[in-house]
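Glycosyl transferase family 1
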Amino acid sequence: MGSGDFLGSTVRDLALANALHRRGYRVTVYWMMEANEDMVDPGVQQRVLCHGTRYHFAQPSGLLDRVVGSLLFMLPQRLRVRVVQGSAGYVERLLGNLIGSLYGRPGGDRALARRLRDFLAQDQVSHVLMSFASLGPLAMQAKRMGGHDFDYLLTFQGDEQFAALAARRNLLEPYRQLLNEAVRASAWPAIVVSRDYVERIVDELAVARSALAVVYNGVALPAGGVRHSFASLQLVFPGLSPHFPIVTYVGRQDVEKGIDLLLYAVRLLGGRDLAIQLVLCGSTAKGTAYRNVVADLAEHLGLRIFHAGSVSIKVRDSLYAHSHCVVYPSVNREPFGLVVAEAMAHGAPALVPDYGGIGEVVRDGDKMGGLTFKAWDSGDLARQLERLLVDRQLHRQLVSNTRALAARFSVDNMTDQVLGHVGIDEPAPAMARAGAR
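Tokens:
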């Protein structure tokens, strides 16, 4: 799923794809709805399984998919994403129609399942990783069609959003039933990205705990000795100073991310002689309405913020490296915390809610790479943020732990665990390097 709402999962899956390719396995990436082709290593084959236009209407449209979608893909990817994200609710509409097609129609989206089966046969794919377990019925249907032998592995990462879309269409029970059928038909237990998320999937989607296994997401660890230019930040955020602490939010600017809580917390700290520079940046898939609310709210609260949309990886990494701390104030029960792991890898401690799988990222036993605050509580968020700004000894201790804690979530560790999970415990054999997938 190329961008926007599920960008974090795209980053995770492409990190895995690139790592497998570098180890000598042949890898093919199949895109649905949108593509981020420049995130894929040279030599990795890419195909578009379907364009977003396929789900413009409630009924899947092959004509809109193949003709209109192909024409739209001739436009630059950045332009496509900007136009779609600028249309409030459009991505949710596409995703809702996708879920309706897979779970609300007899036979699902049979034409797309056939196309997937044909691609897999043409590319001689033996192992398929579905980015979201909610897409499992597509793989299950393609496998049951016959004509090509393959096994599929499902991943739960953000599937609660698909469940919410199913619920809005009165499809939650069919969604649960068919999802569980797809999980049972897989050759392996489904991967889940945190221990807390296992409990959520068991409770909310009635998946058997024995059908789930935890494999944490992986992030690219920065190379040693790399210096991040502050000047590159000033080009994006004019007026940003290296002489005062930077408090940063990086992530989707959508309502469930709780950026307003962070604004309230910073306002509560007003008058305490804390020179905070607040930086907010990230994409959106639900239109710019919430991002505009953030800007308006900051103005009403009398806060100066450094505000941008999506930024380059270079700018993002520089921001992590120069931040006093990174705050992720989500009001959602986050499955993981990719941004938090990335920030700690660059030495920035994190402040996260005590709710969801995100707390597992900043803690390993007694060792902490950040602090937690009471979920949804802007007052406690303000208190913990003040501790990070005032208690220099605490801040130094957290900084000293960050990189070691982040190293647990390296791409290599994730890749090793995924390979072990599907029963491949050895390096890529000569046959794999020669052409097996």
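The first helix runs from residue 7 to 22.
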